[in-house]
Write a structure and sequence with these properties.
It contains 2 helices and 3 strands; from the N terminus they run E-H-E-H-E. The protein has 96 residues and is of the alpha+beta class. The chain has one domain: Phosphoribosylformylglycinamidine synthase subunit PurS (Mth169, Chain: A). The longest helix is centred in the middle third of the chain and has 15 residues. The radius of gyration is 16 Å and the shape is elongated.
Length: 96
């Protein structure tokens, strides 16, 4: 089944306390070189049939009305391409 991905991020002018907490923790864990962190959300929607312009428009409306808060967040919608979307590094949390 095709998968459409919606990535939601806080708008640049909105404070991101979770991102700041991660940024502060990285050096304490021995990681360096990161100058900013913004934390967002990712939604993966499996859809029936072909992903058409109408389907993408429906997903955009979903993102505007349910998946994001348009006052403080922005979003992008794209079709998941199984070849391009393969992560370079994968892992699981310890104890998972």
């Amino acid at each position: 089944m095709p998968r459409v991905v919606v990535d939601v991020m806080p708008k640049p002018e909105i404070l991101d306390p979770q991102g700041k907490a991660v940024l502060g923790a990285l050096p304490r864990l021995g990681f360096s070189g990161v100058t900013d962190v913004r934390q967002g959300k990712r939604f993966e929607l499996e859809v029936d049939g072909e992903v058409t312009d109408a389907v993408l428009e429906d997903v955009r409306r979903m993102a505007e009305t349910l998946l994001s808060n348009p006052v403080i967040e922005s979003f992008t919608v794209h079709v998941n391409d199984a070849v391009e979307d393969q992560p370079a590094v994968t892992g699981t949390a310890a104890g998972a």
